[in-house]
Amino acid sequence: MNREFDIVIVGGGLVGAALAASLRDSAFEIALVEGAPPASTWPAEEWDSRVYAISRASRRLLKEIGAWQKLDASRLGPVAAMQIYGDDGRSKLAFNALDAGVDDLAVILESRQLQSALWQTASEAGNVTLITPARPEQYQADRDGAQLTLSNGDTLRARLVVGADGAQSWLRQQAGIEARAEAYQQWGVVANFDIERPHYGAARQWFFEDGVLAWLPLAGNRISIVWSCDDARKDELLALDATALAARVADAGGRQLGELTTITTAAAFPLRLTHVESLVQAHVALVGDAAHTVHPLAGQGVNLGFGDVAELARILKAEHPARCGDYLVLRRYERARREAIYLMQGVCHGLQKLFNNTNPWLKPLRNLGLGLTDSLPWVKQQLIHHAMDN
Ligand SMILES: Cc1cc2nc3c(=O)[nH]c(=O)nc-3n(C[C@H](O)[C@H](O)[C@H](O)COP(=O)(O)OP(=O)(O)OC[C@H]3O[C@@H](n4cnc5c(N)ncnc54)[C@H](O)[C@@H]3O)c2cc1C
Fold it and tell me: How far apart are CA 103 and CA 388, in angstroms?
């Protein structure tokens, strides 16, 4: 079967589904092609170990498109404060929402809950056709648009094809857009725990010489962790049984929340930095991890992707549908996003390199930097506002 659309989005993860939902009520006819449809139900007592710190800017977008309202409010973990510790056992940088004049700095929520809410929002849009499970196998571009051939032989033609298909983007490769990936030689190990003492909404992060450990407050007496670490530490953590893992994580955080109890098995994700040579070409645009990846130490990867969505949707909606694949229109999206992407990649990469470094001269300097920042309220305010509103 041959079908025609204005826009085909390849990849219905968080970012692709958010883009489709953002373009609801527009004049575009949209297809969202996803390899594996997301789960819509799961046992209520289970907690997803993939969680995100959603910034206030992302929350505004999710509210605007109607996805936030579909989340189960009892499973959201507002972040009221952040405590960041250096690797000398003394230096500390602390922020709190009250000082910033807001109710919370971010909200921690489960990946599958957000994915399901976004998918449902996209599916309710009258101008969005969900095509799943499906994967394109061929890509051909010409002067007027691009054509995708799916594995069942169907073809989809569109003026614009958007790659929202993640860090290894198939569409990016087909379009011949170069990507430079730098592996951090690190893994993000994630798991959830019950805690003995309440977290009071505080997120905690420790910079160690060989990695970064974050404790993120989940709803109730629970936390989720992301431990960015090398191969050896990842293997060690994944080999521990539930009791030993809880003890190891509690010790690494100085038992600040008392005893921990493991409630999900640990999983590990490889960490890499990806720069792409261009976010667009005629009839093609990249968003989310297809366009950039960052180290998770600032919890900003998907927030950066939602920033792409807000900008691309704004630019496209201002155009006549016939022009949505024009290079000059798409270049406006690229120009608008370049700085934010470079800045976030630079900050996360710089921090990762600064702390993951055994140079003895750097250790006192980086810890001094943390302490100094903590003592300068104006600098702290700037940092908080940038992180919240990214
Ligand atoms: C350990 C860890 C912790 C993180 N924590 C945070 C955090 O706290 N805050 C934050 O903002 N970010 C965080 N991130 C980053 C975040 O996970 C990613 O930025 C985000 O998931 C990217 O979403 P995406 O939709 O662009 O890509 P993906 O999530 O990779 O989704 C891509 C989608 O495309 C589909 N797909 C792929 N190829 C095809 C194809 N050929 N055809 C059809 N469909 C296809 C896939 O099935 C998938 O559904 C973290 C990352 C890691 C590794």
Answer: 12
Cα 119 from Cα 74, distance rounded (Å): 20
| Single-letter amino acid code for the residue at 185 | Q
Q: How many CA atoms lie within 13 A of 155 on its CB side?
A: 10
Q: Could you state, in order of their start, the residue ranges of all structural domains in the chain? A: 2-40+47-354
In 3-state terms, what secondary structure has residue 157? strand
Question: CA nearest 6: which of 353, 322, 372, 345?
Answer: 322
Atom of ligand 1 nearest to the CA of 135: 42
60-83 residue pLDDT tens? 999 999 999 999 999 999 999 999
For the record, the structure tokens of 65 come out as: 């498109």
For residue 133, is the peptide bond before it cis, meaning its omega torsion is within 30 degrees of 0?
Answer: yes
Range 2-40+47-354 has CATH code 3.30.2290.10:
no
Cα Rg of the chain, angstroms: 21
Binned at pLDDT 50, 70 and 90, residue 206 comes out as: very high
Mutate to test the pocket of ligand 1, among 19, 58, 279, 289 (most ligand atoms within 8 A of CB): 289
